[in-house]
Amino acid sequence: MTLTKTVRSSLIASAFACAALTGNAYAQAYPTKPVSLVVPFAAGGPTDVLARTLAVSMGKSLGQTVVVENRLGAGGTVASNVVAKAAPDGYTLFIHHNGMATAPTLYRKLPFNALTDFTYISLVADVPMTLLGSKKFPPNTMVEFIKYAKEQGDKINLANAGLGAVSQLCGTLLQQALGVGFTAIPYSGTGPAMIALLGGQLDVLCDQTTQTLPQIKGDTVKVYGVTSAERLSYLPNTPTLRESGLKDFEIVVWHGIYGPKGMAPEVVAKVNKAVRDALKDPAVIQKATDLGAVITPEDKQTPAALQAWLKLEIDKWAPLLKAANLYAD
Ligand code: ASP
Fold this sequence. Notes:
The chain has helices spanning about 5-30, 45-60, 75-85, 100-105, 140-150, 165-180, 190-200, 210-215, 265-280, 280-290, 305-325, and strands at about 35-40, 65-70, 90-95, 120-135, 155-160, 185, 205-210, 220-225, 250-260, 295. By secondary structure, it is of the alpha/beta class. It has two domains: about 35-125 and about 255-325, Bordetella uptake gene, domain 1 (D-Maltodextrin-Binding Protein, domain 2), CATH 3.40.190.150; about 130-225, Periplasmic binding protein-like II (D-Maltodextrin-Binding Protein, domain 2, 3-Layer(aba) Sandwich). The strands form two sheets. Strands 1, 2, 3, 4, 7, 8, 9 and 10 form an eight-stranded mixed sheet that branches. Strands 5-6 form a two-stranded parallel ribbon. Strand 5, helix 6 and strand 6 (about 185) form a beta-alpha-beta unit. The chain is globular and about 65 Å long. It starts with a helix and ends in a 5-residue tail after the last helix. The structure holds aspartic acid. The site of aspartic acid has 15 residues, from helix 2, helix 6, helix 7 and strand 7.
């Protein structure tokens, strides 16, 4: 049986109308079940702490629980790939830091594209890093640390959370600037690395204040320097790495929320609103302040701002990482 042109086009039109209605109804109902927020590192680390702080508040805004899911491995790229391949239905979200921008240069082969395989939702917070030593590690100040590092070299253990982790980035830039080579100890995140530092099995860790500040305040670690360009108001006596002679040293860890490519705009808008609500939540603001995190200004809490920032950061880090000759296959 053949359909007349008119009947065929009216069938096509109603199929489109139906799909649009279904999509719209789906977006209106979203979320009807718990939403997962993937963290690319181990529980207890700085990215995890930030994720869990946001998840509670985003859950209140969405009317559904936001469940943090730690997907570990390869400096965050295992999680990025899991998210890139997930259904773009709004039930898989992702929080990641600068690693999203460094991985495309660090890995010769990546099974995803940071610039085209994700839906961008919002920037959330900037966090500085601190260079720490274990209480058992001899140097007490940055000046002593530099002297000791040059004398002891590879006898010193330094943690990293894989190629693509900011701890690894900080450690690489530090060793380059000092002209030394420490012994790298890999962890699935800096949550476990901090436990080793506290236990004295690890000498040195460079990590975000979201994890390190409570330890510094509790005097359970030694703090040598901060990676921000300026000293931090809450650590006024701790020098910047720059002022300690490490020319141009600066790492600010920024964090963004993503989903897989192809999320419906209405769902993106709902998730973006939940992020914005969380970033206004007094409990989140208090926790961020306690942990040295600076919440992203409201005008930058947008999908477009995250996407533009990611592109800028990929371009910024590429030449620095190429110069450091760091690659993985
Ligand atoms: N701070 C880690 C990093 O080095 C990751 C983490 O555990 O949050 O990237």
